Amino acid sequence: MIPTKDIFIKLKKKISDEKKTLRELDSFYSELKKVEDTSEKNMINSQIKSLSDSFKKTNKEIREILEGVSLVKSLHGPKRIRLPRLVNLEKEKTAYVPVEPLKKVPKSEEKPKKTITSLEKRTLKRLRKREKKVEKKRERKASSYVRLSNQFFGGFSSSLLKRGWFRNLKRDLVKSNMNFLTKSYLSVIFFTTLLSVIVSIFIFLFFLFFNFGINFPFITSVETDIISRIGSVFWILIVFPLGTFIFTYLYPSLERRSIESKINQELPFATIHMSSISESLVEPSNIFKIIISTKEYPTLEREFIKLLNEINVFGHDLVTALRNNAFNSPSRRLAELFDGLATTITSGGDLSDFFEKRSQTLLFDYKLEKEKKTKTAETFMDIYISVVIAAPMILMLLLIMMRISGLGISLSTSMISLIMVLGVSAINIIFLVFLQLRQPKE
User: Fold this and answer.
1) Which of 55, 174, 270, 361 is most buried, by the most CB atoms less than 10 A from its CB?
2) Are residues 232 and 264 in the same domain?
3) Residues 6+ apart with CB under 8 A from 362
């Protein structure tokens, strides 16, 4: 006969299995309402049917277990009661055994005390330090520049955002992981543009009355009339503030593209890593924790931390967190990975198979990009040879011939050489900066 305790443990396990099956049925029914594709509907319906059959089978087993439970305690037969033996105190004699006094152990026979080695002392010291270590809460405060910008343009920025302006700026700020509120960053844009207007006024006034040349003295006074001079330097008042506004407005999108490029470099190898982890049948959210603990993918680490924060802090389930992070991800490929993973989890697919196929696709795209960048580098090498080496020599010979023939070129030979050297240096700097920006981070 099975003990009553084991019966109730078995009954509890079966009821727990039924609860899990009901939760899965609920998620599949809610997903069925959203799906429009016929093949996906058929697949979900088959899953629902198998879960229903499993639920009925478990319910039948519970009924069988309950039939074997009896709440009536069985009666036991009469038991023989043993009475204690009567002791005759007169006949019983107590024997006293003499106890020898404790002998003092000589020092030579005492056990030697265990000594601690220097390595063990250092380990204990390090453990004590680790125990005393207290984590301090770090509070991020806005910089004084941001606070000053909010004081000047906070209300104006809020009114523009309420009207629906600068929506793209808000999306770029979220995707670029910049720690700015949209209102604060917009205030910074306006305040920086205001400062550039003030600086451009000072530059305009300087060039209104003075010239800057390459010959000594470098700064000379203007000899032309003031009206024509205003017309020639008035562009400073427009170009400087406009350039500042455009750069500050486009900076979040540039940062987003930079993060996207770094994510695309790390994603193929991280997906291979995730594929090997998923084969051990761990819980899906633990895959991201393991990837974070490796510290091998610094850019992806921030995105995975955001995903885990949605689960642990905001209380969302894994599928909802994956959908939200796919929407806010700076990389299109990472968004596709999150969406595909959410669909696989919802439909009950094989995670290791999903990660393996996705890693093959991402690795193929990575190799194509590498080949593309190699071809681009070869093209720029040809441009560099033609522009930096051949073109200055031809231009210098042309200028010298025009000066000798008297076609209006009043520059001396040394000045032409200086212009060529400065021009070649500037072109080299531009090429180096451009190639550095195009070079992917390994």
Assistant:
1) 270
2) no
3) 267, 268, 271, 333
